[in-house]
Amino acid sequence: MAAQAIDNRDEGIGQYLPILGILMLGLFIVILNQTLLSVAMPRMMTDFNVGATTIQWLSTGFMLVNGALIPLSAFLIERFGTRILFILAMVLFTIGAFICGIAPTFSVELTGRLIQAAGGGILQPLVMTIIMFIFPPHMRGRGMGIFGLAMMFAPAIGPTLSGWVIEHYNWRVMFYAMVPLGALVVIIAFFTLKNVIEPKLVKLDLLGAFLSLLGVASLLYGVSEAGTDGWDDIIVISTIAIGIISIIAFVVQQLRSEKPLLDFRVFKYDMFSLSNVISAIITVAMFTGLFLLPLYLQNLRGFTPLESGILMLPGALVMAAMSPISGILFDKVGPRPLAITGLLITIVTTYEFTKLTPETAYSTLLAIYMIRSLGMSMLMMPIMTAGMNQLPKHLNSHGTAMTNTIRQVSGAIGTSLVTTVYTNRTSFHAENFGQEMSLTDPSFAQTFQNMVQSIMSAMHQTAEQAQATAMQLINGQILIQSNVQGMNDAFWWATGFAVAGLVLSLFLRDVRKDKVREEIQSENDVKLLPSPINESK
């Protein structure tokens, strides 16, 4: 009886398909725009006449504003409703894209990026909350599979598309193209989008908002800078400390509040907590591949940004094809089989990346990355859905805000951790290689002299010139080999994270069965009660 009642709850979902279409289009172009910029930065440095540290603020500033707004999304959804908030987010994004496209100076360009970030920070948790509202628990896998199309496909094709644009057009085209697309989404949403969640007159918790913004922004900035400046840098330590203290104060203040801005009571639900821990671990493992492979291809192997992006494109297509399929499988078999299968694939393929050499075939990298993408497509959305299914409906917006905040922070931590491991291990291996290639070693000294003789003969150089050329070639080889070994070590760490995720995934359970059992037990309890008619007799 209870299971049959649950199966009948999907009636009327078809009426929301146009809404889902416009939501996915808006989310897709916003996430795509976030990933387009990295390849264009060298050209932008030249056009704006700024250094690498300055241009990086286009990414850092975007991340800070985007991440700081996500915890406020639960309040914003409740205050403005889904329709107005979606349109506002897309308007901000479109205006920001227009400003970025026409920007005459770097400061104007940065202003446009921050405006874009304000729209993007609102949009992801908003769309996720709407999907949680539209789809009942037994069908949420399909809804989150659709959500995953934008979340996973857009960032994967971003580098390829960006590389193609940079090779054939000006970088401004990437922003100009977003303006008509954003405007189209706004116009369609204005006439067709209806409120899934109605707005309410609720007051903003100013203290909570301040602590949240300060805490998340400071923590994100600190961990993002740690990868380049080091974890012992005074600014990194200070900002991380400010972030952690502010977040602790925010948590305490919210737990005491009758109407919390972000309800931390969502962590009372065990599967929600577990799924977020697993999701954070997987995010770190995923960012290792996204960060290191382009470096390996472009800096060490000499491939163009477009060729680097093309290597990741088949994996993106696999994720796009598998995301809805994974959602359907989730609805049928639950989270644990998908998580275990996906993590086993991820562990094996990540381990294969620990064997990189300066001669690893492009086709080999392509195949491993495609299979790894298959594993990842079974993880992110299903595990996230497994946790969200346990929350009551009134906590959905708080759950999505919390989940997206954790993903943002874990992504920043993951990138910094990978950068730190890669940098430190590269220095370690470079020092070891340098010691091995010492002229005090008779064997190496003989090899070096043979190399000098060959250069003198082939290039008609003097002995001194040939020695300088030989040292330059050796140092180049040391640089390449130490960098490759550093990347291999970073992938070892990523493999370890994936193994930890696999162990934790064994404890996942399908909370939908909990609810069915509770309803059946409730019906049985009612049947066992004494009949009023029999008692009267």
Question: Can you walk through the features of this model?
Answer:
This protein has 537 residues and is mostly helical. It folds into 3 domains: 10-203, Growth Hormone, Chain: A (Up-down Bundle), CATH 1.20.1250; 205-260; 265-436 and 455-520, MFS general substrate transporter like domains (Growth Hormone, Chain: A, Up-down Bundle), CATH 1.20.1250. Helix content is 81%, strand content 0%. The chain has 21 helices and no strands. The chain has helices at residues 2-7, 17-48, 52-55, 57-69, 73-102, 106-134, 140-168, 173-176, 178-192, 206-229, 234-256, 270-300, 305-333, 335-352, 362-377, 380-388, 396-436, 442-459, 463-505, 511-528, 532-536. Helix 2 packs antiparallel against helix 6 and helix 12 (270-300) packs antiparallel against helix 16 (380-388). The longest helix has 43 residues, at 463-505. The chain is globular. The two termini are 30 Å apart. Residues 1-11, 519-529 and 532-537 have low confidence and may be disordered.
Q: Tally the helices.
A: 21
Uncertain runs with pLDDT below 50, 5 residues or more?
1-11, 519-529, 532-537
Intertermini distance: 30 Å
CATH topology of the largest domain: Growth Hormone, Chain: A
Helical amount = over 70%
Structural class of the secondary structure composition?
mainly alpha
Characterize the biggest β-sheet.
Answer: none
**Rg of Cα set:** 26 Å
